[in-house]
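OP here, attaching both records as promised.
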Amino acid sequence: MLDRLEVPVIAAPMAGGASTPELVAEVGRAGGLGFLAAGYLSVEAVAAQVTATTALTDKPFGVNLFVPGPQSTVDLSGYRERVRAQSGAEPGEPRWDDDGYAAKLELVMAMRVPVVSFTFGLPDAHDVRRLHAAGSTVVVTVTTPAEARQAAQVGADALCVQGCDAGGHRGTFADDGISPGGGELFGVLAALRLVRARVDLPLIATGGLVHGADVAAVVTAGAVAAQLGTAFLSCPEAGTSAAYREALADGTRRTALTRAFSGRPARGLVNRFLVDNGPHAPAAYPDVHHLTKPVRATGDPELMSLWAGQTYALVRPAPAAEVVARLRAEARQALSAASMRIPPL
């Protein structure tokens, strides 16, 4: 299905409220594929979003699930006190949970969601077979060739290859707790070519893609589609908060990888919280996420997690269908220009 999209553009799942049924429906209507983000939502909320999406469109769409990782044994008392002192807000209690993974997995199978993707790890091979039986296409997010091989072995239908230029959380299966990105970092084109050499599966490319020329670049490099998140954050259909939109529109902040907000590497706009706490943040997801949640909820852009890819400053607000149409036109123009620059032998 992924290689038959009218426009090879996918709206990435963006947990935390940015991905909405309206955004998903509009991207699908324009010929692309939209994703709902099940992360952090209750099972009931995910069911409501799937129901709302199917009421808005008859086009295929996807739902993304967070694969739970191991429980952390890190003592977070010191980091909690640091966050309280630095932010002036009362932190939450750090805790581990599995994000309702098993129940959400049962839900997407019962509701026969067309595409189900996984981030932060691998689904069980048995669950992949069950999803296939329910008619779902299974996509796994990978960041290295080794992860790609593992995903192929459990029966994934396609891989979402994430470059280090991507906004939001890194999809690494295991965070080494030392490197800024949790492990070896590859730009999107390098990651795509390295994975292409190791597995024979359809590949979706993601990471810093905001222009149609980016879409053309990854398609010519072997991807069946380009997945964009930051490019859709400023759409009116997105659930992006006003403060978040203003920070993106300003366009002057640099981006950086940090564990400060969640305990897992993620790329966002640099603000005071990231600068003050990034060097001290432990690798403890989702414990740190729960610890900082009340602080982030204050709405202060200096305390919020403002996830964004490295090219965010190039994004301009527009309705989602217009974004897809623009990407399509720009991609065709880029391919035409390339064909002129590299004539036939």
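Record two, same layout:
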Amino acid sequence: MTGLRYVYAVCRPFGKPLQAQLTGVGGDPPRLLPHRDLVAVVSHVPEADFAEEPLRARLEDLDWLTAVARAHQGVIDALTTVTTPLPLRLGTVFRDDSGVRMMLEAREASFLRTLDRLEGRVEWGVKVYLEQEETPQGPATPAPKPTSGRDYLRQRRMRTKAQDDLWQRAESFATRLHETLAESAEDSRLHAPQNPTLSGASGRNVLNAAYLVPRAESEEFVEKVDRTKDGVPGIRVELTGPWAAYSFAGEETAEEEGP
């Protein structure tokens, strides 16, 4: 099959087979391309979509981009069950197998260092959201209609103070949670809060963090998060993972070469 080579991840050689029905971007099954002490996980993609100019245009098509991202993540998830992958950025492509091997040769030392650091470890994501404050009887009832300008200003000050108090409580909760989880992880990363318009999640994102945890200690880490989930009214904790260690892969995943 002709086409460009789409690279999902770099790994050390591993003996376990990938899922038999696994497909990658564009429906092409991923394959292993070995080079010395490394393996690139690749598949074929059409030049009409993934060459430099058409890819730039395609990245503006959110439906197409979503399909590519899902296929890319599906391969990474499958790899995570059999080995420790070092994920490469979405849309990393090369002209042919030779180009992929040249990349592996040039970056072999940095890839091996990162893979050694990530071996046997996974990433867990934890997000804290501030939801609408509720009373013991249910959601807060709307304030009565103000009877004067002074009454309006009073109600507005009270609402502002209540919102500030709730926000401070959420920030304190998130800070304590992060400190607790970071102590249980080998490394952690604080990401920028998510935009609710883009993420589609309800509530205001207070904490968006990633934690690098040995796979063997993941159950204990998950239990620690679960114990916090219903601890504070109006605050929601979400746990995702285990993922390949995207947040801890280092600068080498940000450098790519085009076809």
